[in-house]
# Entry
Amino acid sequence: MRKNSIKNIRINQEVQKELSNLIRQEVKDPRISPMTTVVNVEVAPDLKTAKVYISVLGDEQAQKDTLKGLKSAAPFLRSQLAHNMNMRNTPELHFIGDQSIEYGVNMSHLIDEITADLHDEDENEEDSKES
# Structure
């Protein structure tokens, strides 16, 4: 099975959906932030391992704590994944921090600031033309 086959893409999506639900509803570790998002999952073609990309809304310490909590909860999550999904092999989960959402929010704020400055400059020019 190729890495980007339709079957592999579908497995990635199903594992992502299931892990999102498990993290939100089943994991009770206080280190895991309630604002945790499973951004992407890449299951290896042999179904032995899975890279789980996690985004945490909060400071850097919250991200580190959440990753530690998820790494300690990985065996539980794997067993629940095996119970809920009918797969030949249940992948070993490797959690990786992903700052793409935070980066996007930051870029959005920067764009908003620039457009607000441009809008203010346009209003100032119009006011000076009227005078």
